[in-house]
Amino acid sequence: MTEAPRFLGGDDFELTHVVAIAAHPDDLDFGAAGTIARLTQAGVHVEYCLVTNGDAGGFDESHRPDIERMRQDEQRAAAARVGVADVHFLGERDGYVAPTLELQKKIVALLRQLRPQVVLAHHPERNWGNMQSQHPDHLSVGEAVVRASYPALENPFAFPELQAQGLEAYRLRELWLFGGPEERENHFVDISSVLDKKHEALMAHLSQHPDPARMMDHVNNKLVNVARRGGQAEGALSEAFHAVTVNGASTISGF
């Protein structure tokens, strides 16, 4: 069994459960599938949550009648490639996502049910150097996740109807946010050993790739550049995150 990527604050306790949240099917595979493959190989239980079904995605007009089902099936297949069996869909409309209280409540409810130590999600800040990855839905999901993570997740008086349903408040350990400004990156994960898993996950999304070879070249080049930014060894291929401690040894919470 391989070693899991560590908490930002060290390895003072074992990482066992992660929930990864993204706007569309394939977002997690571009941003974090290698890290997720390393986590599952190390025995960490990872679950996915997709806020939309990706109904506005694709390039083939013939796919339109079945695009939501196709993209859900593709995401489940991609998840399986990196060791993830549980995939949740929140059913928001693709292209219309906003960090509303309703969406925050859905996220709080899911996280209180699943109770992970780490939540992996889009970064809420725009990276102006890479507009092609800055879909408004990504930023909205990132903001909704951050707002849900504190204080609502750990405040029993936030969304009291959830508490009444038995979804009790709890304290999240960390957020790992991907796709944000490069200057925010502080957590680099070498995925060289699981590159094939990331490739397989990306190739599961056939409805989204009119030129798979070009897409894969772009992904590989990005992984090389991320590793260089992280000061990692020559030949490393890495994914990067802005890791944020929500509740750690030095934090104080009123709840």
Mean pLDDT: 92
Derived from helix and strand composition plus strand pairing, the structural class reads: alpha/beta
Rg over C-alpha atoms, rounded to the nearest angstrom: 18 Å
What's the assembly state of these chains? single chain
**Major β-sheet profile:** 7 strands, mixed
Annotated CATH topology:
Rossmann fold
Share of residues in helices: 25-40%
Q: Give the strand order, joined by hyphens, for the main sheet.
A: 3-2-1-4-5-7-6
Helix count equals: 8
Q: In the CATH hierarchy, what is the superfamily?
A: LmbE-like
* Uncertain runs: none
Strand content: 15-25%
Protein described:
The protein has 255 residues and is an alpha/beta fold. It has one domain: Rossmann fold, CATH 3.40.50.10320. The protein contains eight helices and seven strands; from the N terminus they run E-H-H-E-H-E-H-E-H-H-E-E-H-H-E. The chain has helices at 27-31, 33-41, 67-81, 101-114, 136-149, 160-164, 195-203, 212-229, and strands spanning 17-22, 45-52, 86-92, 118-122, 174-178, 187-190, 238-245. Helix 3 (67-81) links the parallel strand 2 and strand 3 (86-92). Helix 4 crosses helix 5 (136-149). The N and C termini lie far apart (37 Å). This is PIG-L domain-containing protein.
Topology readout:
Blueprint: E1 17-22, H1 27-31, H2 33-41, E2 45-52, H3 67-81, E3 86-92, H4 101-114, E4 118-122, H5 136-149, H6 160-164, E5 174-178, E6 187-190, H7 195-203, H8 212-229, E7 238-245
Parallel strand pairs: 1-2, 1-4, 2-3, 4-5
Antiparallel strand pairs: 5-7, 6-7
Helix pairs in contact: 3-7, 4-5
